[in-house]
Amino acid sequence: MTIRRPVATLLAALFATTSAHAATPDAQARADEPAFRALYKELVETDSSWPNGSCTIAAERMGARLKAAGYPDGDVSIIVDPAHPKEGNLTAILRGSNAKLPAVLLLAHIDVVAAKRADWERDPFTLVEEQGYFYGRGTSDDKAMAAAFKDQMIRYRQEGYKPKRTIKLALTCGEETEKALNGVEYLLKNNPEAMKAGWALNEGGGGSLDESGKPVSQGVQAGEKVYQDFTFTATAPGGHSSRQKPGFNAIGWMAAALSRVNGYDFPVDLTPAAKAYFGAAAALYPAKVSAAMAAIGSGKATDADYAAVSAEDPSWNATLRTTCIPTLIAGGHAANAQPQSVTANVNCRIIPGESVDSVLARLAEVAADPQVKVTLADPPQPKSSAPELTPQIMAPIEALTKEMWPGVPVIPRLATGATDGRFTNAAGIPTYGVSGMFSDPDGQGVHGLNERIRVKSLLDGRAFLYRLVKAYTQ
Questions:
Q1: What fold is seen in the domain 226-372?
Q2: What is the mean pLDDT of residues 22-46?
């Protein structure tokens, strides 16, 4: 028997079904995509590279969007050191209902590595969508995360979301170059209240894709290596180039010393995060390295296991030990003269817990030439320990990852590069790298030519971060 229902009843049922679907957490997290794309486009197309671009302009544009969304002037600030007028920072706050709960800080840098138009296939400061990717300088590092954080702050305000825990936003300058003013360091010193938080979310984590674009793992950064440059110097009296004295040449001394450094492997120094990473990731890789990774994770690795893993992937090698490589060299003063002075820069990424002085001593030992002096190029970076991966931090990440990418494991990582987390961790703000944005295995051109990010990865990450921050603050 067929029961005929009034049209109005059917329409009401359809509307209720549609509304229920629109109200699902994932649908809500993905709402207003056109507005997000416009925000992302404006941010990417604002040149914020050093020294020709301006973070201040980028910060002002993003600040204007927050105010247009209803944030009062007192809750949005553009903070600029007068001595660095183009290196401005943006801070904002969405106040929670429980002032006793420590805030969550959303941290992302808006400066980018310089990009020369003649070297790129596309204009680096024009956002191009092509074959499933967004191309442009900063599309991945780090304007993807900056735009996602900014977008969710706007949407929380427009939705009338009332978090229990205060949400703070800091979009900062100076992460990509030691020559610029570092915004996080500056804010911690001059505006500490804007940065005060129970913990921070930052770059440095994210998902990994295989060659076919399939998600492999979701990474959470828990600690990072220490960045340090060292200066190698060799000097000699010089003289006419025709008056060769075998073995007496500053360039020759330097070349030999750098060759020894370049070929040297620091000993393995396994951190808890690295041990956890290899143990959790072992099952994801072919048998030839899986067993060695599992041995590292169990604490039973042999020298052969470490060698196998190090040879398989430069990032894995860097996870296991301090690494140092020559990056710059300059010397000589004339084509027809013996060199009087040669200098070189050796860049090191040091395992947390190892002292800079011990690395300095080891470099001098490896250089093995009293004619080549080794000194610190800059004062040591602030020391910070890896933050603890507590259930409060990990449970929401694991739950969302399981829902959005079924079967994809969440794996802790020791970052082999450097982020602004080195400043916040040192200041007592536990900082975790997590984005939900999955990256291609080739690095996506970050810091290089034709930087890109998958459109799907960006939009998935935007939804993930929107939901993650709500999970932390409801």
A1: Alpha-Beta Plaits (3.30.70)
A2: 94
pLDDT digits (tens, 9 = 90+) for 194-205: 999 999 999 999
Are the C-beta atoms of residues 313 and 197 closer than 8 Å to each other? no
**What are the tens digits of pLDDT across the range 302-332?**
999 999 999 999 989 999 999 999 999 999 9
By the 8 A CB rule, do 110 and 58 touch? yes
pLDDT of amino acid 7: 40
pLDDT at residue 383 tops 80: no
Rounded to whole angstroms, the Cα distance separating 270 from 253 reads 34
Residues forming CATH 3.40.630.10 domain(s) in the chain: 25-204+419-473
Distances (CA, A) of 101 to 90, 105, 154, 187: 23, 13, 22, 22
Task: Reply yes or no on domain 25-204+419-473 having CATH 3.40.630.10.
Answer: yes
Start-end of CATH 3.30.70.360 domains in the chain: 226-372
Which distant-in-sequence residues (6+ apart) come within 8 Å of 440 by Cβ?
209, 213, 454
Mean pLDDT confidence for 29-56: 97
pLDDT in tens, 392-431: 999 999 999 999 999 999 999 888 878 999 999 999 999 9
pLDDT band of 474, cuts 50, 70, 90: very high
Model confidence at 246, pLDDT cuts 50, 70, 90, reads confident
Q: pTM score, two decimals?
A: 0.85
